[in-house]
Amino acid sequence: MPAFAGSAAEPPLEDSYYALLSSSDVHDAPLTPVAGAECAELPMINVGCLTSDGGGSPEAEAERAACAAAIVSAAEEWGFFQVRNHGVAPALLDAMRREQARLFRLPFEAKATAGLLDRSYRWGTPTATSPQQLSWSEAFHVPLAGVSSGSGADGGCNFGELKALRDVTREVAAAMSKLAGTLARVLAEALVQGQEPRCFPTEACDETTCFLRLNRYPPCPVSISAAAFGLVPHTDSDFLTVLCQDHVGGLQLMKGARWVAVKPIPGALIVNIGDLFQAWSNNRYKSVEHKVMTNATTERYSVAYFLCPSYDSPIGTCQEPSPYRTFTFGEYRSKVQEDVKRTGKKIGLPNFLV
Q: What tens digit of pLDDT does each residue of 180-203 get?
């Protein structure tokens, strides 16, 4: 890896922000301040009975049924929930955060040009045409296949000299993948009770199709933070997302017609429904808009696992009739990218209504 001696670590977010400010019409009028949000606690679900072998006793079966019902209820009402006893060791998540911080402290040039982690480095929002479309963040959005298949020399990710990051990333990816698969099956089975078994679309999600995203949200200057987002409002274009956020907080989600802030809970993971599960469930499960707020003094880290199918996978429905026409994941992603490039924002599922 090149030394990049003396280079700064931060991406040029401030330069990008002011370039957008000067090139758009918003400098003629004051920017709309980012609205505050009330604090709320997401449903907390103990999933230990799902992630460990509790035997087949009537008591164990009743516990699993109650746990599944709580997951389904949260997916319907909130689109988000938190889990504990999830099988991802706290020591592993602590190690992930330490190695993540070491990764993001590398010089910007190294992150952007040295080919690290499958050349997956991103910062800001390349498609932004106004300051409020700019995400004040940087990330490595890594295909799971690269994480699990070794070094850059043998076709996997290039971790450079960050050998500890390679090892902990593999462990985190494997543990989150197992958890996401368990939760997705619970959610899918709840939709087809009493029917003949069918092939759940989430069973086509594996290390060749899923992603792990390592996020960092740098401190944002006070003069900017009042009108900027760490991550702009969006829904996730997957089946299910598993998120580990640190103690700083900043995640907000739409509940009804208002934004609510999600208080960090030590040891808990956050799970949210993506667009594909909303479509497959005929809108029974909710893919909810969410965002990340900026922080003027403190950086924030998070790790997200995205449960995605192959691009040629048809999404389909749990039961006909469906409000959506059949589409593939590849079609969906292409349309999202087209809309963002054309309008500056994602439209998503409404494009595929019958």
A: 999 999 999 999 876 654 567 787
